[in-house]
Amino acid sequence: MHIKAAVLRAHDAPHRIEDLDLGDPGMGEVRVRIAGAGLCHTDLLPRVPDYPAQRPLILGHEGSGVVEEVGPAVTGLRSGDHVVLSYDSCRSCATCLAGHPAYCATFFPRNLTGGGVDGPSPVRDREGQQVAARWFGQSSFATHALVASRNVVKVAKDLPLELLGPLGCGIQTGAGTVLLALQVAAGSSVIVFGTGAVGLSAIMAAHLAGAATIVAVDVNPARLDLARELGATHAFDGAHDGLPAMLEKVSGGAHYTIDTTGSPAVIATAVGALRPTGTCGLVGAPQGDVVLDSRVLMAGRNLRGISEGDAVPQVFIPMLIGLWRQGRFPFDKLIKTFPLDRINEAERATVTGEVVKPVLLP
């Protein structure tokens, strides 16, 4: 079928809306008409010149939409179902079978190359050339996408479908880091470095968990104001020379710190802000080697890398939706919508920090 999608043909090129041809659903696949797709910082990775993504490429990995056609061997889904799309995993390796699909043995090729592992791309351009369309198993910056049914979460039809896509990655990652991976305890202290969609979702989740001290650290004053609105008890400028002392004063050494930036300098600060036996969750895409004084870790401080909040989407996303319905997890406050053909504007707003979570509407 004919679709429109935002295509990235080179790391330094703008996204271009193109007319493309999409194949039929294969074994275990569904075709989804996209209602909305969040733009995440991970969608910027193919902008890195040497990043091993296939190009031309359709990005987008926070999609939501309506099932239009169901392929062979699909159960539990039918045409007309409203769905949220999340990351891909094999569901058969040791970590997947243990309930941790975010650490799938084939996570990287399935999600972060655009090519996937399930055969050739189902999308071709008008010259008949393949366009990579397996980014996180969905490539949802398009009017339609083919998605493995294992990546799909069915949701109720009375929800604002176009806003739900970010639950599939960024919001899931932040909230899952707090509620699932770290299992933040009531009365504890949490410091979140970086208040983008992941960090703000972590702050909302820490508030839900009953953390007594929730500290937001960022250099964007507007983001810090929003963090306070969403549950932060304190908010500090990350560029302040006295930041370590300020963190120590309010937390006495945090039980948990969360880095969403990937910056080696910020990670070092996050580890240093822990109390003995505290845990630092590393969520941001790494931006270089991290060097830590081993004496800092000798006091029982812990580092943990966390992918997708260690969440099983089919379990966790409905839980977050339930909390949103109760007014306890207002993730919609992070979102600003853009038409799909303004994707380059939305990307700039992401890079500058002007918008927390752009959602593209085909």
Description:
The strands form 3 sheets. Strands 3, 5, 6, 8, 9, 16 and 17 form a 7-stranded mixed sheet that branches. A 6-stranded parallel sheet has the order 12-11-10-13-14-15, sandwiched between helices. The longest helix is centred in the middle third of the chain and has 13 residues. The chain contains 10 helices and 17 strands. It has 362 residues and is α/β, with parallel strands linked by helices. The two termini are 16 Å apart. Helix content is 24%, strand content 26%. It has 2 domains: 199 residues, Alpha-Beta Complex (Quinone Oxidoreductase, Chain A, domain 1); 133 residues, NAD(P)-binding Rossmann-like Domain (Rossmann fold).
CATH topology of the largest domain: Quinone Oxidoreductase, Chain A, domain 1
Number of helices: 10
Q: Look at the helices and sheets and give the structural class.
A: alpha/beta
Number of strands: 17
Cofactor: Zn(2+)
InterPro entries: ADH-like_C, ADH-like_N, ADH_Zn_CS, ER, GroES-like_sf, NAD(P)-bd_dom_sf
Protein name: NAD(P)-dependent alcohol dehydrogenase
Keywords: Metal-binding, Oxidoreductase, Zinc
